[in-house]
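User: Continuing from earlier, I have the next pair ready.

Assistant: Great, send them over.

User: Here they are, in order.

Assistant: Folding the first of the pair now:
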Amino acid sequence: MRKILHIDMDAFFAAVEQKRHPELLGKPVVIGGAGDPMQRGVVSTASYEARTFGIHSAMPLQRAYNLCPQAVFLPVDYAEYKRVSLQVKEILMEYSPVMEDVGIDEAYLDVTDEERPPEEIAREIKKRVKEGLGITCSIGIGPNKLLAKTASDMQKPDGLTVITREDVPRLFHPLDVRKLMGVGPKMEGYLKEMGIETIGQLASVPKKVLVYRFGASYGNYLYDASRGIDESPLIMEWEPKSISREQTFQRDVVKWQVIAKTLADLTKDVVEDMKEKDYLGRTVTVKLRYDDFETITRGKTLPEPTDDEETLRKAVFGCLKRIELSRAVRLLGVRVTNLTKPDLPE
């Protein structure tokens, strides 16, 4: 049986800011955009003090300000958060070489081959992160990634939770079905239409019903996951599916010249990222969001993968020609997919 740890940093961006600005400790702190709640932008992270006011990630900054005008609003300092994240990951790698780096604020660690109990390892990791970096993390322990991640969210902040296979009926099944990895708001709505409110209720549905309703792949996933079954390995190297850039305008744009320049700049940024990561791309997609939030996408697939800026820019403007610019524009984005390495066949 595997022994998997899921390490989840607590309100990471806000915690880093409170560490380097001790005067912010105990205060509601909101991180997002340029740090100005009067400008467009969304909440990246809110401290636990801010969350008591109903503030959460992805919320518009202006909405967060309305909920808690006394909060301290700060801009995203990704370089600093990345620096601290690397320090956390360096600590984790000392305990096992098998680590899946999920994102800037979380990771999985496989300690199956370690002689010490996973709880002991988790407590030591938490102590080193807290004493060495001045921030806290919550750790979940389970026989697979699914249960470990679920466990890490059960006693936040600064929690340590274990879910074994034997614990599934007692700890896992009573949870709201939305807590199951892979169940988003739309799927939650479908399941609740079927009378399924908890993970345990989902586990009682026959496999053939789930497969008939949601297809073979997702139906089988829901059947296994609701029983706490997950055989997925830790992925130590990721291949990106796309490289993209977006820009939300502070004021809606109607001038074609501004739209054109923004798309050219976004394309340049994407190409620089592709070259840095050594990727070629074949499919280009332009994303445009009007002032009423209606979103349009147009794509073009090239004959051959490329990282040539002029070629990709022409494809971008070819996509733009297929979009009616009859209203003010709120957001623009450029995405390149069908990525390959230059030294590999397509």
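And the other member of the pair:
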Amino acid sequence: MSLDVGARLKAVRKKGGLSQRELAKRAGVTNSTISLIEQNRVSPSVSSLKKVLDGVPMSLQAFFVEEMPAQQQVFYKSNELPDMGSGKVAMRLVGYNYDPRNLSLLHETYPPGADTGVDMLLHEGEEAGIVISGCLEVTVSEQVEILHAGDGYYFSSSQPHRFRNLGDQPCVLVSANNPASV
């Protein structure tokens, strides 16, 4: 299941009665940024999308799961996991429709050269993960470590952080954060 980020942003903006210019002003970005995202000509990083959604205001979680069927589902097949990633990074969310959801559990895939974007991520809560295959460079504040299959991380998400695959193979990991940030 994949979300058309551009169409979704346009629908959210219109539902809020905002012009592209007004949303850009509120979010502190250019009008062309909003236009390019809505036309799917650029794929925003998670931090960039969060900045735009702060102008609505709307959380990342609401952006990705609002209007999806609400049911207390327990088991999720692979094709039922919505992709919350951006760019080349796939972040498939388990339990997207669990209400209330206080935890985000993600199955992430970083192709070679993929990363979470130039801007460091920063949000509430804690996050942890374990690399299943491949390798991943994880930056948390000033600390940088290359993790391999079986290695993991755990840190406060209020510290600036970033993830990059510098290897030549896809990196697969399972991560969790609390409170739910996607």
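Worth noting for the second one:
The two ends are 15 Å apart (CA to CA). The domain at 5-58 is CATH 1.10.260.40 (434 Repressor (Amino-terminal Domain)).
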